[in-house]
Sequence to fold (599 residues):
Amino acid sequence: MRRSTGEKVFNVVNIVVLTALCVTTLYPFLNILAISFNDGRDAMLGGITVFPRKFTLFNYEVVFRSGDVFSAFLFSVGITLGRTLIIVFTTAAGAYSLMKKDLLFKKSLILFFLIPMFITGGLVPYYLLIRTLGLMNNVLVYLLPITFDFYNAVIMRVYFQSNIPESLIESAYLDGADDFRILSRIVLPLSKPLLAAMMLFIGVWAWNDWMTTMLFCSNKPGLWTLQYLLQRLVMQTNAALKLAMTMAAKSGKPIDQSLITPQTITYATLIVATVPIVVIYPFLQKHFVAGIMLGSVKG
Amino acid sequence: MRRWSMFRKQWQLFVFLAPGILCYLVFNYLPLAGIIVAFQDYSIFKGFLGSPFVGLKWFGVMLHDARFLQVVTYTLEMSVVKLLVSFPAPIVLALLLNEVRVRVFKRTVQTLSYLPHFLSWVVVAIILYRVFDPTDGVAIPILGLFGFDGTTVLRDSRYFIPLVAGSEVWKEVGFNSIFYLAALTTIDPTLYQVAAVDGARRFRQLLHITLPGIMPTAVMLLILSVGGIVNANFDQVYNLQNPLIALDTDVINTYIFKKGIQEGYYSFSTAFGLAQGVVSFILIYLTNRVSRRLAGTSIY
Fold:
C-alpha cells in the first residue's frame, strides 16, 4: 500500500508520543529504585537518575531488621490471602446460586444486592457501625465487612452460563449429585481460569488497601498493612528515624543516626511494597483483558 | 406449601448465599439505617437509640458552615477538570495504539502503561512527590523549558487540581484504554476496506468508522464518571495533600472524613454525606435517562 507523506509523519509522531508515555511511566520507578539503593546523605544532594551514585544495602537492612516493615509485610501477605480466598469462594458460591433459573426469591435477592451499589450510608455511619460492633483494632474488620462481591458475582454468573454446559449439570443431578457436589466437583474446577483472574484482582485490591487500617486499626501496629505503614512513613518524617532506632535496639548494634534519611528509608519501603505487584503483574496482564471483555458482556 | 418444598430442595443454594446476605445486611444495610445520625444530636455514649432527634438541624448547619461553599465548589471544579482531561485521554491512547503496526512496540507500550493502575495511591503519591521534588525532581527542568517555575507545584494549592487530573491520567490512562481497544476490535474490518475503495483516507476513516464504533463505550464510561462528579476520589486527594495546602484543597469526601472521624462531628458529617449521596444518585439517574434517549445506551 502506498503511504502518503501525511501518514508517514503521523507514524513517526505516534511512535514518539507513545515512547514518551512509556518513559513517563517507567522513569520515576527507576529513579526511586536507584535512590533506595543509595547512601541517604548522598541522595540528599540530589541529581541521582536511574543508577545509584553511592551504592548501599543499608536502607533495606534498616527496613528489614527493624522488624516493623517486615512484620507489616507478613501481615499484608496473610491478610491479602485470607481476604482473597474468602471473597472469591463466597462470591463463586453465591454466583452459582444466582445462576439457577428457579431459585426462590431470585428477583428480590438480585435487587437486595443491587441497591447498595447506588445507595450507601456513607463513611460516618459505617465507621460508627464498626465501632458499635466492637471491630475497632480487631483483625476481623479486614475479613467480615467484604465477603461477597456482587459485581464479580455477575461476571462469574455469565462465565458459568457460557462455559459450563447445562447438560453436564443436568446429568449430575440425575446421577444424584447435590448442589454442593456440583459446585465443588464441576463448576469450580471448570472455572479455574476465571477464579485465578479474580484472585489476582482482588488480591491487588487487598494488598493496596491502607484505608481499612487507617480508619479502624491505626492504634494497633500488629494489624498494620504495609501500605499503611508506608503512608505513615510519608506523613510523619520522624517515623523513619524510629524504624532505625528499633533496628538498633533489636540488633544491639550501635547505629549512626546521621546515615538515616526519611527519604531513602521510605523509598526502600515503597519498593518492598511494590515488588509483589510487579511480580504477579505478568499473570494479571494475561487475564485482565479477558476479564474486562466479560464484564462488558453483562452491560 | 409448594414454596416450602422448593425451599427444602434448594436449601444448599441458600447456604451458598448466606454469607453474602448476612454481610450485606450488616455492613451495607445497617449503615443505611445509621443515616438517622444525620437527624440526631448523636453522641457516642447515648448511641443510635438514645440520642435526641433534632430534625433537619444539621442540614442547616451544613449550609451555613464557613467551608461548605468552598468545599463543594472545589469538588465540582476538580471533578470537571478531571473529567475533561481523563475522559478523552484513554480514547486518544487507544486510537494511537490502534495505528501502531509493529506488534512488539504496541505490546510494550500496553504492558508499561497498564502497570500504574495496579499501584495504590499511597505509592503513586510518593512517586509524584519525587517527580516534583524541588531540589532534583525530573519535572522541574522540563517545566523550566516552558518558563515555568516547577518548584512551587507541591506547595501552592493553585496547582493541586492539575496535579490530581495529571496523576489520574498517569495512573489510569493505559488501563482505561483497554475498554476502547476492546470496542475497536468489534468494528467490522470490511467497513475500512469499503471506505478505502471509496477513497476515504485514514483520517476520514477515523471520523466516520472508528469514532462511531467506540461511541457506545465512550457514552457508557462518561455516564459512570458524571455520576461521580460530587464524589472526588478520597484515596487520591488524601494521599496527594500535604499540610501546606490541605486546608485549601479539601473536597467533600476529605472534609467529611476530617470533620466526622478525626474531629468527631458525627451528625454534621453524616448529614453532609447524605446530601452528597442524594445528589450523586440523582445525577446517575438523570445521565442514564439522557443517554437512553440520545444513544440508546444505558448501563442499567
In short: Chain A has 15 helices and no strands. Chain A has two domains: 1-56, 58-298.
